[in-house]
Each structure stands twice: as structure tokens, then as C-alpha cells.
Amino acid sequence: MHTITLDGETDFDGWRKAARLLAMNGVAPADVTWIVAGGDEPELFPAAQNTPLEDVRGTFNVPAPFVALAKTVILHRDPQRFALLYRMLWRLRGNHDLLQLATDPDTSKLESMAKAIRRDEHKMHAFVRFREIGREPKSHFVAWFEPDHHIVELAAPFFARRFADMAWSILTPDLSAHWDGHKVSFSPGVDKSMAPSSDRLEEVWLTYYANIFNPARLKTKAMQNEMPKKYWRNLPEAALIKPLIDKAERVTSEMIAAEAQEPKKPQRREEIMAKSHGTASAEQFNDTSLAALRDEAADCRACPLWKDATQTVFGEGPKQASVMMVGEQPGDKEDLAGKPFVGPPGQMLDKALKEAGIIRDKVYVTNAVKHFKFVPRGKFRLHQKPATPEIKACRPWYEREKALVKPELVVAMGATAAQSVLGKVVPIGKTRGRVIDLDDGTRVLVTVHPSYLLRLPDEDAKAREYENFVHDLRIVAAHLSESARAA
Ligand code: URA
Ligand code: SF4
């Protein structure tokens, strides 16, 4: 029996080194116990029982996709993950294609674990909310989050890019991440019993800071027990926390983003969607193929826009919709909410739809590009028009949505949508308001984007353009009643 003690819950290098040595010594998976130093698992097998492993020379190849998969799966909270990965490594030696075998129980288990990690990462991107502690220019932004898995290190670079110009800390029960404007560092987690509400975050932060960061009061022993050794070298310097020392200046201000809190119990997406759409029934949204496509799009990396955006904003609406409305890309609000057209252009769209006699829940609403493209300006994010390569990269998602929804009429709002829907650049002025037949039997109506109306400075022009927009939507309304009659 061999007992392998890893340095920490996410000690991939330690696992890899041990796994390689074990495999080369011919140690079968059943003969290995994996534990984490300082972890919750009791040490059932003292290290003394180990038969020595020889540092066997020679080559040892595993398929590259397995390495990537293992790096992800090791972040899972399941204590069996190290053993499962070793078993897979062991089995891969006899069958290099095992990872392609979706029916294999180990393969499918590992794939679903990796999926859970990616989901958890998306959730963290979307739900972390910072609270400002201290006052500018010395303020520090603190957030509390409880990830399902060990994903803090995985997710931290995203927040460093996204909130590059503010100093922040994300406290979690496992590990805390910090950004001082230059580098990311990690320190121990915060005890779960201290789980702060947003009101208590400041208090918890100060206690945490006093216990952990103040070098004079560093509780060495407690920290050694609590954190894997590898984080030691990363301890933030006192400089990171300077802003907090001046208690007199401390004020608590609004949370950076809206008070959108993660629902306590995970809700099924269908429920959330049905709820947010009032009249639409859950069954209308309960379509597995669209849900699967949405899940797939959540991990899309086909262009660089996923990097800085919070999440993929997929389309929404009934599967059987006869009309599909396509916008440009999600904006700031949509990026945070994960839903299309919920910000000011969405309100403009809702108003115009209503005026044209269309119930928004009856149409499927999506965007040509599914990630928010922006440049940061202080606390704000300025919208940027997507470029042609991004529109092209994202087009397959629109096409696959369209293939599932099978709308009779597609409404392209604005130049980006028209470019994606028609597959070429068209002048909006000349194309709008005419129904165009596509080869596949669908029809397309090009119109302006609701943001265009919001941007017009002149009130008269605004009113006129709004009427023109509603006029175009009446064509859509006529189409809807026609298709309802035909049905
Ligand atoms: N603008 C768009 O094109 N789409 C949205 O979802 C929001 C704003
Ligand atoms: Fe993928 Fe579209 Fe997002 Fe680019 S914008 S990463 S293509 S979903």
C-alpha cells in the first residue's frame, strides 16, 4: 500500500509527479491512498507502510487532453478525484483512446467533473460582488464567495483583468485571492462560520486582515495548518492592506454592482427563465436541445471576447417561436444578468414591441455576438462594436439556435445583426423594412438597433426614428398573427 500526501487540494504538480512514479513502478490504483496535507481526511495509513518507489528512468507518455482534463478535475471537491485520475492514467497506458470513449464510466465521470468545474467558474465570474471598504484613492474592494469547488486560483486571473485598476480581495472558505493592481496573491480562506452578509463583510474583513495580514501578528501555526505550503511564498505584503489601516477614513459604500445575489438554492434554469418571463410557461423553455446548446456556448473560446466578459449571454425565448430577434451583443447589464436585452436598449425594445402589439415572451431574442465587448474606463465599461472576425466566430451559435428554433422570420436589429444574419455587410438605411427571402426558406427583416434610438441627440429625430422602428415591428406583428392563424 502506498500513501501519497499532496501539498494541497489543488496540488496538480504533486499529483502528477507521484502518479508518474507509481505508474512506472507498476503500482496498481487499488494500492494507492491519496491524502492532502492538513486536509480533513484522517491519515489512515501512516507513511511508514510505504514500499519505496524507485525513480525509474524512461519515458512515460499520456495524451495531452488527459493532462488538461486532470488539471481541471483536480479542482473538484470530490475526495476521490486523485484516485480516479490515477486509475484513468493507469488505464490509458493500455488504451490511449479511452478518453474518446464517452460510454466508459471513468471517462464520463471525469468529463462531468470537469463540466462542474467550468460551471462553477462561470458562476463565480457572474456572482462575485465587491463592497468598497475605505475611501478613494485608498479604497479596497472586498467580496465574499463560496465556490462549490477549489476554483479560486482558476478564477482569480479573470478578476485581475476585469477589475485591473482597483485593489480587491475575494474571501472564500478555502482560499482568498488578492489583487494589488500588479499581481494576484493568495492567502488562507475565511472560516465558513464567519460567512458574512454584505453588511458584515467589512467587519469580517478587518478581523481577517488583523489575523492574517499584519506581519507582527501573523499566526504562523494556525496558518500552517490552514493553508497549503505552496501559498506561503505568495503572502501579500503589508502594502496591499495599507488603505485599511487608517480607520478614520473608513466608510462603507455601495457594492460595485447591483445587489444581484446568487439564489441560495440552485434553481433550474427553466424555472428562472419562466419566472422572469411572467406569462411563459416552464414547458416552453424546457427544451433539452436548446439548453444543451446554451451549456455548450457557456464554454465557448472561439474568439477572445470571453476573456473579459462575465459570461456567455445566450438567447432566450420559446423553442417554437416563429420570430427570432437578433441584436448586436450583450451590454453591461446583460453581461451581468446573463440575459439578452435587459438594460436600457432592452427597455426601449420592450416598449416598441408593446406598441406594435407584440408580446416579448412570444419571440426568441438573441444576439449576433454572445459576449460583451468593452474597454474599461474606471468603474465603467464602455461598449465596443464587435469586429468582423468576432461576428464570424460567433455566427455558428446563432445558426445553431436558428436551426433549433426554426423561426419563420428573423429580425436583424442593426448592422452587426444584419451582417451575421445575411452573411454580408449591408447598408441598413437601404435594407430596412423589407422582408428578404433566404435560400433556406426563412425570411429576414432588417431594422435599426434600439440603441441607435437611444443615441440620437435630437428629440424630433428620436420620435421620428422610434415611429419608424415601431412601423418595422408592425410588419413582424402582422407576420406573427398570420402564422398564428396558419397554425
Ligand atoms: N444590445 C444588444 O444588441 N443586445 C443586448 O442584449 C443588449 C443591448
Ligand atoms: Fe464564443 Fe461568441 Fe463569446 Fe466569441 S463572443 S467567445 S465566439 S460566444
Describe the structure.
- A six-stranded mixed sheet has the order 7-6-5-4-3-8, with helices on both faces. A five-stranded mixed sheet has the order 10-9-13-15-14, sandwiched between helices.
- Helix 2 (64-73) crosses helix 4, helix 11 packs antiparallel against helix 14 and helix 14 (388-405) crosses helix 15.
- It folds into four domains: 2-122, no CATH class; 128-194, no CATH class; 202-256, no CATH class; 279-486, Uracil-DNA Glycosylase, subunit E (3-Layer(aba) Sandwich).
- It is built from 18 helices and 15 strands.
- It is of the alpha/beta class and 487 residues long.
- Bound molecules: uracil (URA) and iron/sulfur cluster (SF4).
- Uracil binds at residues 327-331, 334, 340-341, 343, 345-346, 367, 451.
- Uracil (URA) binds next to helix 13.
